[in-house]
UniProtKB/TrEMBL annotation:
Keywords: Membrane, Transmembrane, Transmembrane helix. This is Molybdopterin-dependent oxidoreductase. Residues 281-419 form the Oxidoreductase molybdopterin-binding domain. The chain crosses the membrane at residues 33-56, 93-112, 133-151, 163-184. It comes from Streptomyces odorifer. GO terms for molecular function: oxidoreductase activity. It comes from the Bacteria. Pfam families: Oxidored_molyb.
Amino acid sequence: MPASRQPSAAPARLPSDPRFWRSPVRGVRFTSVLGLVLLGGITVLFVTGLLSYAAYNPDLAAVNDKTPEKGLLGFYLFAWPTGPHWLYRVTQGVHVTLGIVLVPVLLAKLWSVIPRLFALPPARSAGRALERVSLLLLVGGALFQFATGLLDIQLEYLFPGSFYVLHFYGAWVFMGAFVAHVALRLPRTVRVLRHGVAPGERDELAAPAPAGATVSRRGALVVVGAGSLLLLVTSVGRSFDGTWRRVALLTPRGGAEPGGGPNGFQINKTARKAGIVAADTGERWRLTLAGPAGRLRLSRAQLLALEQHTAALPIACVEGWSTADQHWRGVRLRDLAALAGYEDGSGPPPAVLVESLQVSGPFRSVALRDNQVADPRSLLALTVNGADLSPDHGFPARVIVPAAPGVMNTKWVARMTFGDPR
């Protein structure tokens, strides 16, 4: 008898074959829900990112500008205000925390549309070609922006390359693709969310031959939401104190505070990491003031003999962490401007260039605007919470300015030059 025929193996399929993708979860409604969340979230990320860049006053002086030749992309820059004093703490905390929370949503969205990246032919019309190009730029830009942001949070000053340049220009490229994609897809997204897929209309994201369901689309959205909630709980506490900070386990500056006592709060860089040694900050240390009155050198004892003022201000860093208000005490910057030759009554205090004992690294020199110098809460701080500054918090003297990014609050101050810093 003839041998019975064995069933032939199913032909191997490539990702360009719609039957390659078999998950029953994919569909335009599932993708539309994720897309709407990302539309709102990414818009907030972009706006708060631009605000963060403006907070560095990059158009004030070259030492502040880490993205040279920005050209027309700096059209929106403005003088960063000093109030409310928690402004940067909120805007940057939202920027970084929201970016972390959106990671599961972004990954789910990319997973839901991945069949379209392999669809052949690449374009059937000019409109489809534009949509595919915007989709490729959107996916690449999203991965790049989120990856560089997360790397900066985790690696901080060890970031490979210039984070400021990469993230700034990457944001504009990504947002260009994002706006184009939204313009092309938003009408259909809204229609699908309101009315579902129209009768007779093909759901281009649904699998033509789906496998058996293991989770519903609603269940998949719950999983994504649970992932975002977990990331929120384990990261948002970096912007608070107490219990919330102790559960922020997935990000630097979470967990317990670094030590106790008046100086027991978060820092962005230790004295040792900055190369500061005791000989730099001992009895021989002097603050050099420069201005119309010439050069003036003041010891710490002489600074303590000047009129002292107190300000309750937080420290807020570009990586998204911050402290509660700390009670700083020292000499007002506008009083130091008067000593440098800008007497009260002769006009508002000028901008100032602040230089640190730190010999290298980003923002060892920083320019502050005249409104920052004039604010009565802006201090050259000598003590904090009733005690001398610790070496890690900038002893013998540091700048503290309301609403300014942490790196603008220069530690281990060596020289202050009042006048146009350009």
